[in-house]
Design a protein that fits this description.
2 copies of one chain form a homodimer. Chain A has 2 domains: about 80 residues, Winged helix-like DNA-binding domain superfamily/Winged helix DNA-binding domain (Arc Repressor Mutant, subunit A, Orthogonal Bundle), CATH 1.10.10.10; about 100 residues, Rossmann fold (3-Layer(aba) Sandwich), CATH 3.40.50. Helix content of chain A is about 40%, strand content about 15%. The first copy, chain A, has 9 helices and 9 strands. The first copy, chain A, starts with 13 loop residues before the first helix and ends in a 28-residue tail after the last helix. The N terminus of chain A is likely disordered. Chain A binds a DNA duplex through helix 3.
DNA sequence: CAATGTGAAGTACTTCACAGCC
DNA sequence: GGCTGTGAAGTACTTCACATTG
């Protein structure tokens, strides 16, 4: 029942996509240290996953390794980024020029990875017209026309929670297709718009729950060298996010 | 084989913990709108999950609902937060007083939810002694003694990637048990320290991959009202992170 | 012969379906 | 009657184990 077992070329798990970003992060750090070749197991160790996981993740996109040798670091970085579509510039807009918004506008790595913020918006009349990192703050009413004119597909929301929905609605009207939402609020958007939630609180809650639950001894008396994971169910370095 | 089926009270999936943070977020917004009772299905809809998922998640911690009625919003919020251990203050320290660090120090909701930053550190000599939101910036060498003196268990890292490891090592030496790492770098810490990674790039990569892959028509010609999800494998509102 | 790529086995999480309760 | 709480069924993801290849 519910047939069509593999109707599309291949179904790629969301979990795989998320890990690929981490692989790139670690590979970039290896490249900085002039490591030119790495095999799946040491790479996996640095990423906090199993070697077989990396091999399987990569297999969804092609064969990038050399048997008996490993992966060429630079080649693998460009293979992954081009597979994901992040190998070129992505113009963006940002709504909510508060502390966090400014931090994102000024974020060096963000720009360096091709995420270029082209226009910024706020609903506070005292902020309109201000310049942040060379960009003028426009009123949120201008979102639709400006997004349409620029033809931008991605937006970042860094408003307080109560203003996130309105920002999202304006953005959707302007034709935005993807939203990175830092506001601690769920938003409703038309079906074809993707939303990614960056939620500090989720991470904090997770941290605290693990802290208070885990009866991992605080003082590692015994040789805490090699009992890394596999203790019971803690997996400290797991990606999972 | 690999016996001991349920050796601990009950194994709670990590996935459940993450969703609970979202439930609280949505419940708090309902409370602001003076909604006093809600049943699992509408709550689930607002959170982007199935009703049965919420019921099962909550069941790990107890029975919080009234059959035939639903859940009392305020009661459920306090039940969840106390189950997670986030119903009281958590003192913290922060390393890396850049744009993002300052944004976190000034983050209202963060403080309002009991996450109180008690000391801040940076390695830039020009920043030492500055005051940010009433807190003096201390040199990173001071991390160990200050963390020990304050007895703080949680830290936030908002340094550039290349300085994250050093910060983490100092923090671990000082006896920190949990780290929220915003730096785009993996860090190695002793076994008993939990690390949560807040990774914008992962979210951006995910967004862009979904954007470029999904052949979801950009212009919803047909009645895009009710073909919400179940189209094929997109699930726009899913928590999953 | 070391390390990749991959079906097959195992595990973890999600959804279903319905008994039990208000 | 409506909605919770929960075993049982289903799905998705991870790990194993090994044939394959440079």
């Amino acid at each position: 029942m519910t047939d069509t077992p593999q109707p599309k070329r291949k179904h790629i798990p969301q979990a795989t996509i998320k890990r690929l970003a981490t692989y790139v992060q670690v590979l970039e750090s290896l490249a900085r240290d002039n490591v030119s070749v790495i095999s799946s197991n040491p790479l996996a160790e640095a990423c906090g996953v199993q070697g077989s996981q990396i091999r399987k993740d990569l297999a969804y996109f092609g064969e990038f390794g050399i048997r008996g040798v490993g992966y060429q670091v630079n080649h693998l970085i460009s293979s992954i980024t081009s597979s994901l579509g992040v190998d070129h510039e992505w113009p963006m807009v940002l709504v909510g020029v508060g502390n966090l918004g400014k931090a994102m506008i000024n974020h060096i790595g963000f720009h360096a990875h091709g995420f270029h913020i082209k226009a910024i918006f706020d609903c506070d009349p005292f902020k309109i017209g201000d310049k942040v990192h060379g960009l003028e703050v426009f009123p949120t009413q201008e979102i639709k026309p400006i997004v349409e004119k620029l033809g931008v597909e991605i937006a970042v929301i860094t408003t307080p929670p109560e203003r996130a929905q309105r920002a999202a609605s304006y953005l959707a009207e302007g034709g935005i297709k993807g939203i990175l939402n830092f506001a601690p609020a769920r938003i409703k958007v038309p079906d074809h718009v993707h939303v990614e939630y960056v939620d500090f609180f989720r991470h904090m809650y997770n941290l605290i729950f693990n802290l208070t639950q885990d009866p991992k001894e605080a003082k590692p008396e015994r040789d805490a060298m090699d009992i890394k994971k596999h203790l019971f169910d803690s997996d400290p370095g797991q990606i999972r996010d």
